[in-house]
Structure formats: structure tokens, C-alpha cells
Specification:
It is built from 14 helices and 14 strands. It is of the alpha/beta class. Helix 12 packs parallel to helix 13. Bound molecules: 6-O-phosphono-beta-D-galactopyranose. The site of 6-O-phosphono-beta-D-galactopyranose (BGP) has 15 residues, from loops.
């Protein structure tokens, strides 16, 4: 059974839905020069084929959208603050008032319906200026700019926001140093020492945010956000089991540092053996140790396999990270393997390790939807595939709760259709709400309720009981 106070809701990120990329004093973010997501080349300047520049025009339509979320019964809405709306270049000391006002209004609108905002401080939208002039998180100066940014938003929204996430999918920097860390140096030219130095800077900044947040409002709940992806051994061969463990360790260390405040032994060994040097400034180790997170949040879409057998080590698709496909699982149209039980497994694993409350802040199915006329004559999408995906995953969340895992809530990804992060497409849809906008830029931007909209409303209304009917 789901607990009474379970936080049901949905999630988006500013850069994937707001649009209005240069309105009201906003500066450019790295997303404004990534028209093809992580796969394509960056552009010098924003180009019209970049769907994120308009997004789904959430910036102007958020009232309509939040009303729809409220109709579904959302208790929580996860979004991010676009850093470049608050500090257009990132290194200013005085914030942009119009940007601050926008989020004031947005959070007020949530509260009007009793919806609690859950705010990601940095979701793949580092100000472009910080990338181009400082090389992003490779530069220790970013810690100071981030500190200034969090102080500003914590102070401003201290009575409107309780739940905060410091960096979206912080471990994704291993795959996408530009999107995740604003690192301008091309990935192929980065040394491992540089990459881990940037990671260290983010870790320190995250701990600092926890410190500052609790000083400003002791009621704040501050969490990390990790891209989770269980790694299974491809076979029972102990070498495969160890291979899976080592592959998993590369990601586990991010949660480990956030939850326990120390670099784990396996990471120290990896750094030693790979001659990776990370500079710790005076006080870094103490800061990490003292300011661990209040809760752990994560995204969950896929699991992968690993093998020590080079001949079988052929990677498939996945959420930023590829793994060896699991022969027992089916995949989405984008090749992401679907594994509801992996979510129960992840929840149990994290709970066993840290005994910190957990929050599933992203999960969902990216699919091609077709707008059709429903029985009542209104346009809709018969997305039974999405309902099945979500039902199967939510049942596993409930199983984990039965196992004794403390789960704070669940926010499905892209609760309203938006632009994809990895491929920058609109046709990869996740929402309960269809947005009429296509990859060629056409569409009215009108919103339509999908079948899953009514399904999720019932799930929330019955606090999960309808999952079993
Ligand atoms: C995560 C990101 C989101 C998001 C989601 C789905 O990696 O935190 O921003 O978009 O995955 O991925 P995609 O949009 O590539 O389908």
C-alpha cells in the first residue's frame, strides 16, 4: 500500500518545455546551441531547428498546464529553474528580477492547487557563457557562481519551495560532459583527471547547497539526483558478476558521496590505478562529510547487462549510457529496455545501503503517439502502452514499499509532452497531455488529454489502489 502522504506527480525541466529562450532578460544556456541533443553537433548560435527555443511554450502557458496537473490530482510538480533566467551569464552578482518573478508566479500557481514544487537547481542548462568562458564545471570558479545562484533562489523561494535537487542526473557527466557539466572541451580531448576534477567541483557545490539551504530554511529537504540503471551480469559467471559490479561502481560513487560524504574505496582504487589526480581544496573533505543529503532521488528507465567476455560485449541503447542488452527484456521504440522489476531492485538496493528516504523523480515511456478522435468527439491518444508501462513500474514501487523501503513519491517524466533531452525530438512523447507541436516546428501548441491522463488521475485518486483493478 502507498503511504497516505505519498507525493504523486510529474516532472519536467525548464529547458525542455519553457521555450522563451531569450525573453525577459534570459541569457543563453548550453541547450540553446544543442539542436540535436547529445548526438549532433553544437551550433555557434541558436538556430531555428532547435525545438527547445520554443519548447511547448510552457513559459506562457504554465497556468493552463498546472490546471491540468491539478485536475489529475498532482501533489507535487517537479520542474527546474533555468539558471540563465536568474543569472543570464552566470557570473553576475545581481540577479535578473524578471527571471525571479517568473518562478515566483509559477510556484504560486502550484500552491493555488495545493501542489508542492520539487525544484531541480541545475538540469542540463548551464549558462552558455559559463561553458564558453570558464569551461563549465572543470573550473573551480563555478562553485562560487553556483553558490551565488543557490543563495539567491533559496532566499527568494524559502517559503514556496521545500524540496530541492542539486544537479539533475549528476553522473551523466561521465557520458555528456557538455550537456551535464557545461564543459566546453570536446569529450574526446578531456583527460580522466579533468573529468573527475569537474565531478569533484559539482560534489562540493552540491554539499555547499545543502549547507546553505539548511541555514536559510531548516525545513528544506535537499536531495541528490542520480541516473539509476541497475547493471546485471549477463551470465552467472563470477567474472560477469564482477564486471557488472565495477560498471555499477562508476555510477554508485555519486550516490555514495552524497549520502555518506566520502569517496568510496573502490573509487580511490580506480583513481590510483588510472593515475587520476583530483585536487581537493582545504575544507572540501569536511564539507562533503558534514553536508550529506536529506534524501536520494533518481531517474529510472532502464537496466543493462555487463559481461567480461569481449566477444559478447556489444552495447545497445539506453538512457545516455549503453549496456549489453538483456535477452529477457523488450525495448521501447528508442531501444531502451523495459524492466519494471529493476525499479524494485534499485529501490531496495539504495535503501539497504543508505537508509535515506528515496524519491523516484523520473520514470516513463518515450513513444510515438497518434492523435485520434475519441468516442466523445474530442482529440485524444489511446496510449495503452504507456498505461501498461506505468502500471507495471508503479506496482514495483509498491512492492518496494511493502519491502520496507521508504519512498517519498513518484514523479513521472514528461507529464506533459516536451522536447527530448538526448535527441531533442518532439516525437518522443512521454506525457499524459499531448502537445500539438512537431519536429518540423508545425503545430498549434494546443493541449489534449490522453487516455493515460484519466488513468493516472484514478491512480492518484485511489492512492494506488486502482493499479490492481
Ligand atoms: C533523463 C533526463 C531528462 C529526460 C529523460 C528522458 O536523462 O533527466 O531530462 O529528458 O531522461 O530522456 P529523453 O528525453 O532523452 O528521452
Amino acid at each position: 500500500m502507498f503511504p497516505k502522504n505519498f507525493l504523486w506527480g510529474g516532472a519536467v525541466a525548464a529547458n525542455q518545455c519553457e521555450g522563451a529562450y531569450k525573453e525577459d532578460g534570459k541569457g543563453l544556456s548550453i541547450q540553446d546551441v544543442m539542436p540535436r541533443g547529445i548526438k549532433g553537433a553544437r551550433t555557434e548560435k541558436p538556430t531555428e531547428d532547435n525545438m527547445k527555443l520554443i519548447g511547448i511554450d510552457f513559459y506562457h502557458r504554465y497556468k493552463e498546464d498546472i490546471k491540468l496537473f491539478a485536475e489529475m490530482g498532482f501533489k507535487v510538480f517537479r520542474t527546474s529553474i533555468a539558471w540563465s533566467r536568474i543569472f543570464p551569464k552566470g557570473d553576475e552578482t545581481v540577479p535578473n528580477e524578471a527571471g525571479l518573478q517568473f518562478y515566483d508566479d509559477l510556484f504560486d500557481e502550484c500552491h493555488k492547487y495545493g501542489i508542492e514544487p520539487l525544484v531541480t537547481i541545475s538540469h542540463y542548462e548551464t549558462p552558455l557563457y559559463l561553458a564558453e568562458h570558464y569551461n563549465g564545471w572543470l573550473n573551480r570558479e563555478l562553485i562560487g557562481f553556483y553558490e551565488n545562484y543557490v543563495k539567491t533562489i533559496f532566499t527568494r523561494y524559502q517559503d514556496k519551495v521545500t524540496y530541492w535537487l542539486t544537479f539533475n542526473e549528476i553522473n551523466s557527466i561521465l557520458n555528456s560532459p557538455f550537456m551535464s557539466g557545461g564543459i566546453h572541451t570536446p569529450k574526446e580531448d578531456l583527460t580522466e583527471s579533468q573529468l573527475y576534477q569537474a565531478i569533484h567541483h559539482e560534489m562540493v557545490a552540491s554539499a555547499l547547497a545543502t549547507k546553505i539551504g539548511h541555514e536559510i530554511n531548516p525545513k528544506f529537504q535537499i536531495g541528490c539526483m542520480i541516473l539509476s540503471m541497475p547493471v546485471y551480469p549477463l551470465s552467472p559467471d563470477p567474472s560477469d558478476v564482477l564486471e557488472a559490479m565495477e560498471e555499477s561502481h562508476k555510477h554508485d560513487m555519486f550516490m555514495e558521496i552524497h549520502a555518506r560524504g566520502e569517496y568510496p574505496g573502490y573509487m580511490k582504487r580506480y583513481m590510483r590505478e588510472h593515475n587520476i589526480k583530483v585536487d581537493f581544496a582545504a575544507g572540501d573533505a569536511e564539507l562533503l562529510k558534514q553536508y550529506t543529503v536529506d534524501f536520494i532521488s533518481f531517474s529510472y528507465y532502464v537496466s543493462v547487462c555487463a559481461t567480461a567476455d569481449a566477444a559478447k560485449n556489444v552495447k545497445g541503447e539506453g538512457n545516455l549510457f549503453a549496456g549489453v542488452p538483456n535477452p529477457t527484456l523488450k525495448a521501447s521504440e528508442w531501444g531502451w529496455q523495459i524492466d519494471p522489476k529493476g525499479l524494485r531492485y534499485a529501490l531496495n538496493t539504495f535503501w539497504d545501503r543508505y537508509h535515506k528516504p528515496l524519491f523516484v523523480v523520473e520514470n516513463g515511456l518515450g513513444a510515438v503517439d497518434e492523435l485520434v478522435t475519441g468516442t466523445d468527439g474530442t482529440l485524444t491518444v489511446e496510449d495503452d502502452y504507456r498505461i501498461e508501462y506505468m502500471r507495471d513500474h508503479l506496482i514495483q514501487v509498491e512492492e518496494a514499499i511493502e519491502d520496507g523501503v521508504k519512498v517519498m513519491g513518484y514523479t513521472s517524466w514528461g507529464c506533459i509532452d516536451l522536447v527530448s533531452a538526448s535527441t531533442a525530438e518532439l516525437k518522443k512523447r512521454y506525457g499524459f497531455i499531448y502537445v500539438d507541436r512537431n519536429d518540423d516546428g508545425s503545430g498549434t501548441l494546443n493541449r489534449y488529454k490522453k487516455k493515460s491522463f484519466f488513468w493516472y488521475k484514478k491512480v492518484i485518486g485511489t492512492n494506488g489502489e486502482s493499479l490492481h483493478k
